[in-house]
Amino acid sequence: MSASEYPEAALYIDGEWIADGRAAIEVENPATRKVIGTVPVATESDVDQALAGAAREFPAWRARSPHERAAVLLRAAGLLRERRREIGTAMTMENGKPLRDAMGEADYTADIIESMATDGPRRFGAVLPTAAGDGRTMLVHEPVGPVAAFTPWNYPLTVPGRKVAAALAAGCPVVIKPAEETPASAIALARALHDAGLPAGVLSMVFGDPDAISRRLIASPVIRKISFTGSTAVGKILARQAADEVKPITLELGGHAPVLVFDDADLDALIPDATGAKLHNTGQSCGSPIRFFVHEQIHDEFVARYAAALDGARVGDPMDDSTDMGPLSNHRRYAAMGPLVDDALERGGRLVAGGTGDDSTGYYWRPTLVAGVPADALLMHEEPFGPIAVTSTFTDEDDVVRRANDNAFGLAAYLFTRSADRALRLPPLLDAGMVSVNRFGVGARDTYFGGRKQSGYGSDGGPEAVEDYMVPKLIAQGVRPA
To answer: Where are the domains of the chain?
Structure first.
């Protein structure tokens, strides 16, 4: 695929690609603000056909050995790697992340799928004798059933890949509704699985009205489990719908990651790491570092060095290899940046980097750092989901832990210190599902990925993700005396 090409989007329903005879939603390139394609809107009958395929194929797919299911996933992972440039080009055009990062997402998603594939055969049960010695009880884990999954635009291949691979490895068919802003990335996943030999009906992919599709899927008796990644507001709506149907749901929602920087932190290592973490995906990541609590003895040095690094970032064409950060992925994110920065400045914060944008040709916003932001500023409580970071000073360890936890979210937290004692003591005190010490980044290919509080519950990574698509069953067997 050349840089000027964008693939035709289609629904994938019960093994068939469907693009004709449907209403369409325009797809925009955030780097140019130009329409580059359309995605068809699924009708009610399309959704029902997808459900029928999942219901029909569930008995056969669950009956396949975990190793057979793994073989399909492993072939699909290999195809994603082979197609990394084609996939990356389409992803950059519809999402705006630099091409090297988009190709890296294809590789990373392949890694995750391989990990899920190998986790599938390792779901163990237990065999226990009865208390009276007259038999035995077995605890087995079975596929929960067909799954409805909903995924966002910020990691348009990885998030669908996580959910689909875990469910398929567990033996569950999936009907997924990815984001309409980034259809080509998700379709690349479906094509890889289709070409890898996934039976028709085990995966269907629909696009369209999010509210109408989610209500129809969740209410269907075919669906036995829901998985959602996205905003906390939408997650609450889907959780209520799932509760009405008494169906389990996995939620990976917003984040507002604190970063605790103690006076013994290695700034030479921290500054470039923090810069890369903030520029990554234009800050549109639930695990992106936002609230930097910096010890007062090194605060000013940290701010000066971090601001200089952010100001030095190359922001521009995501197809250019020299670009450090591309545009925000849509106008909604661009429009949200200015009011958050203005509020922080009005409450006493000091702008030391960025703070401006240009949407004349694309949704570009400069990496932004606001120093000395008070606790009542919106940026201390609302996720910017963009390239904005703030700082605040501290002196007392107990106080900074309390302030780091004083937030509705609990996805990721970061800690920087040279003290081995502090590195061991503080992670258990931080109220987050994932804590990283002396490095940024959470969510390795084979580890737990999830949060707590209003960041959701359940896992989208590691063996725990596969377990989330299984349900336990106790089998009691009596033994008659000879």
So the answer is: 11-253+456-473, 257-446
365 bridge partner residues: 357
Q: Are 70 and 120 in contact (CB under 8 A)?
A: yes
Q: Mean per-residue pLDDT for 140-161?
A: 97
Helices (H) and strands (E) in the chain, counts: 14, 24
Q: Return the percentage of the chain with pLDDT > 90, whole number.
A: 91
Active site residues: 252, 286
What pLDDT was estimated at residue 481?
A: 62
- pLDDT value at position 3? 44
With a cut of 50, say whether residue 53 has pLDDT above it. Answer: yes
Rounded CA gap, 412 and 289, in Å? 8
Q: Residue 322, exposed/middle/buried by CB under 10 A (0-12, 13-18, 19+)?
A: exposed
Contacts of 207 (CB under 8 A, 6+ apart): 9, 11, 25, 39, 40, 41, 42, 177, 178, 180, 183
Name the CATH topology of 257-446: Aldehyde Dehydrogenase; Chain A, domain 2 (3.40.309)
Contact 210, 177 (CB under 8 A): yes
Of the chain, the percentage scoring pLDDT greater than 70 comes to 99
Q: Does domain 11-253+456-473 have CATH number 1.10.238.10?
A: no
> CA distances (Å), 50 to each of 46, 226, 227, 239, in order?
6, 15, 17, 22
Handedness of CA 339, 345, 349, 350 (dihedral sign): positive
CA trace torsion 323, 324, 326, 328 (10° rounding): -170
Q: How far is CA 349 from CA 339, 341, 346, 375, in A?
A: 13, 9, 7, 10
Q: How far apart are CA 154 and CA 181, in angstroms?
A: 10
pTM of the complete model: 0.95
Write down the residue that tokens 């793994």 correspond to.
70
Three-state SS at 215 = helix
pLDDT in tens, 283-328: 999 999 999 999 999 999 999 999 999 999 999 999 999 999 999 9
Average pLDDT for residues 430-445, to the nearest whole number?
92
CA-CA distance, 12 to 50, in Å (whole number)? 9
Cβ(100)–Cβ(321) below 8 Å: yes
Q: What is the CA radius of gyration of the chain?
A: 23
How does DSSP classify residue 421? H
pLDDT tens per residue, range 251-287: 999 999 999 999 999 999 999 999 999 999 999 999 9
